[in-house]
Amino acid sequence: MTTRSFGAPITRNEDARLLSGQALFVDDVELPGMLHAAFLRSNVAHARIRSIDVAVARARPGVIAVYTAADLGALWAPGPLLVPPPPIAGIVFNQRTQVPLAKDKVRHVGEPLAVVVAQSRYLAEDALADIAIDLEPLPAVVDLEKAGETDSARVHDDVRGNVAAHVRQFRGNYAAARARADHLIARRFCYDHGASSPIETRGIVASWDGRANQLTVWDTTQAPVFLRNGLAGMLGLSERQVRVIAPFVGGGFGPKIMLFYPEEVVLPWAAMTLNRPIKWIEDRLEHFFATSHERGQTHDAEIALSGDGMILGIKDVFLHDTGAYNPYGLTVPINSQCTLLGPYVVPHYDSTFTAVFTNKPIVTPYRGAGRQHGVFVIERLLDIAARELGIDRAEIRRRNFIPPDAFPYKNDIIYQDFTRLEYDSGDYEPILDKALAAIGYREFLAEEQPRLKAQGRHVGLGIACYVEGTGIGPYEGAKVQVQANGKVSVATGIGTQGQGHFTVFAQIAADQVGVDVRNVDVVTGDTDQFYWGAGTFASRGAVVAGNAVNEAAKVVRTKIIKLAAEHFECAEEDLEIGDGKVSVVGVPGKAVTLGELALKANPMRGAVRPGTEPGLESTQYFGPPSGATASGVHAMIIEIDPLTFMVQVLKYVVVHDCGTIINPLILSGQIHGGVAQGIGNAYYEQLVFDDDGQLLNASLADYLLPTALEVPRMEIVHTVTASPLNPLGIKGAGEAGAIPVGPLFAQAIEDALGLADRKIELNEIPLSPNRMFELTTKSR
Amino acid sequence: MIGRAVSTDSQSADRHDIAVIVNGLQYSRTVESRLLLSDFLRHDLLLAGTHVGCEHGVCGACTVIFDGVPVRSCLMLAAQADGHAIMTVEGLAADRNHLNPLQEAMRDCHGLQCGYCTPGILMTMTAFLDENPAPDEAQVREALSGNLCRCTGYQHIVDAVLLAAERLRSPSP
Amino acid sequence: MKPAPFKYIAARSLDEALALKAEYGDEGRFLAGGQSLVPTLNFRLAQPALVIDINPLAQYAGVAAQGETIRIGALTRYRDLERHPGLAGSLPLIAEALPHIAHPQIRNRGTIGGNLAHADPASELPAIVLALAGRLRAQSQRGERWIAAAEFFTGALTTALESDEMLSEVELPVAPPRSGACFMEVARRRGDFALAGVACTVRLDADGRCAEARIALCNAGDTPILADEAGRSLAGEPINVAAIEQAADLVQGAIDPGGNVHASAEFQRHLAGVLTRRALTTANDRARREH
Questions:
Q1: Which residues of A touch C (CB under 8 A)?
Q2: Hey, do A15-22+473-622 and A31-138+196-290 end up sharing a CATH topology, with the first three levels equal?
Q3: Do B112 and A36 count as a contact with CB atoms less than 8 A apart?
Q4: pLDDT tens digits, residue range C130-169?
Q5: What ipTM did this prediction achieve?
Q6: Domain encompassing residue B110
């Protein structure tokens, strides 16, 4: 019998191609007659456009065309609202979305004003310098609080106070809880995330075949199906005339699922207008402006506690920087709002946020998608509470955990998938216990830390808990087919940015259909191969598409057994499936291969019974009723130099529950990568804007991504509480590593430097040696 | 035209004839002065395995081996390659079914996710293991610190390099 | 990020290189390692008319010991310096700084001459050359001259080289007996530019007192800074904790860091003090071991 591959650390099917440089990424697409585009981008954050003169650029040899907003005709329109606001009572939402090329006004540095199409990227960039732009600079809206003042400049002329949205969600009665509290803690927290910075930037190749009436677009998108649908609509084509291919994508992390970026709309239009294929590859400098970020929130939070550290209620009021436009709706701040609750019982909760327009690039989800901000607030509040109440910081968390018999646990407020937040399953104490054991919590605090301190070394420990809603709808689909050569093909609508979909989906199908995982080929990200799907985001790929693959493979399995039973004229119970064939139990040699069955299922001649479908294939869809709740605890020991504030991570432990595990090797890779991004977010990465909205560190030399010397070796421990919401019991895992690292650093550094005794609190992220110097010297 | 994606029609462009050996094969081409070596390899020679991540010498995705040492191809001009020998990721193994020990170790240890930074890392580590056949983890991490990866968190890459070193020192019969 | 158009010539001789530089002046840039120049070309921050590739001039690469001094050709790559036998003994400051300079791939191409001519105030080698009171040889069609390190770095990314001159060689003293040196820096990540860096040498007399101390800093101003007064304050006395403390204070007073996105001027000044204390302590320990 075939070894089951589900759950095994199988090496990846896609690696041979990637390792030999034989995998197609978008910049590898070369088409006859292909032209190259470069975009002229605003170098000021806020300005009225007085005039754009492209005559000289158009005349440059090698330039084929130059377009501005005025040339786009009916194409020019603000992009669609990708995620409408959830149905929350009393919500204020002012939709303002990005445009293909700026007209009248520019609203952030890097906003595109014009596009040059030329014979090479080199020539196109030369022509950018020929374009004469007359901009009337306006005051830039940069600070979140100042943005709301009555005399503030307005990013959108008709939006007073730069209010993109105002949302209040609450349950229970916080005021009453507050009145009963033995202890109140109120603080301001500032959390800044950053630029996802995948090693591959964005890119598009658009090719229009006027004779076949077909548009083909290669795009580094995480949502090829929606891109296809939107482009078809914008360009006046039928969906069947448009093919979007997301090839191998060099890292997504969220910003590649933002849709209808200006370049994505302009390139296909220009390709159709010129009847030539056109390529645009975002360079690294552009990436800092042209691709979305996740940025900052300022929280004024208060927690009401009993004397023994039980949470009675939390109130939080925060400002959220949404950037110049808000096409992605409120996903990020809603995630912050919901994820703040964590794994804890919070009987009364009152959370209000104002999303603020600023003259900066737009904010859309980046790995964690706003959860980091919420987790920072609750974990810091608990740390402060532990200190002020004299309770151990692990103990105060334990006391407030949702008990294991309370699931499904209703949190009642509305989550990013528009359903009422409900945790499907979880068991938090064992996770905490494993983390404490793995980091050596008791021994560290009792022996190791004091011993090292006596030697003059400053070491500290951090521990942080989180809950992550994953695997949300709406749905994904998959088609599984056994081919005449005995191989199995799987097609699904979502793409791949490195998560191993080619392998994990193969594992799921292989086990159902009884073949070796190496005999399953997976096609993703091509709208001609699979028509429907939402995309890869929010830690949902394995859960939603994986389950769709499972459903389709199960149906194929039933078809196989049925057909084999007819073939052998025996009962279905007498058959077993595996090793690529169906055999009769107890009768050696009596077997038929899946390939042979597939041929039988699609005869070239003869009659079939009515109602028979050809082939051994099935297309199925899966849509969970709500998200599956993953959870975990991170623990870390660091050493910090008390004079230079350089940090070294000595030990890092992740205990993680993502339900049933498909491939532990791939899962640990996801966690390592998430933690690395979390470390970057906590201590290295920061987008530094000045008061004019200029980004001061727009290069990889100054936007600091962690290297192999900054990311430690990690120990990962898995626990499993299977999700009851899908037949495979799996939960998402893509973002978990990145979520709790901020509060971990704050806690560990406070611990290492004994900051509590100096009355210094670290209530902001990112931290850095420079910031630590400022915070510790200010207090003197 | 394919293979001439970076040529220009401009008469005034300064061009040079170059002869360069890449992965053991001799190429003769005419290139514009400002053409970057990374673009030359990818779009003139259609060796697209070398990837471009930043064009300012920080990320390391474009690393190739130039006269035996790893260099950033985005920081060299194609014209400088005249008379020199380059190895790219395509030169590491005969084909995708016969990966070399470092490539196999990367697969076995899950040392790649999206694969975009991987060719640069393979070239850096190939040269590193040639000079350091028995490295420890600290040395591997130091050698790796000039290549950025955003997906893996580096741990499995380090495992792969250590495993490759071990296998290269004692190859199975 | 593609460069603007330029003419490229691979110089076949020093004469050719110098003739071209004389003809083009500031519109002609030398291409050595390219690790500083090419990024500026790609960002279009530099748009020279002519790039003169001097990599073919192999005679300007190499390290030659000449008794009490060492001469290093401007085209010597960091990689070759790293592998030069005995570097740790003869030029310990450089040996200690090299692992901090960028990454191996950069060091495989980058040259010492390119680095010094680029004169980034945050760079390690200019501070080291200043600490060692090195001399730099400039050649042009008009002839050649030696420029003292103290006169060579005139401003941020600016040197005393005339627009027709090429840096061809660096001359540095070999570490004398009874001396110790230490290079230390604080950088956000290994290989990044230092937030602050200190290069110091101490030489002891027969009684174990300081005969001479020289302390130079990088990222402490528009140029590398030699903290004269701090160095002189140590001379004639034993290098004890109090003396080091005083020197560190004097260093902090001597520098004028500008601050950047990673470090405020105050933090840079603070780090300069911390590093001076630590580097002097180590240099002194090393000198005493040599004693």
A1: 121-122, 125-126, 283-285, 643-644, 646, 684, 688, 696-697, 701-702, 704, 706-707, 709-710, 768-770, 773-774, 777
A2: no
A3: no
A4: 999 999 999 999 999 999 999 999 999 999 999 999 999 9
A5: 0.96
A6: 101-169
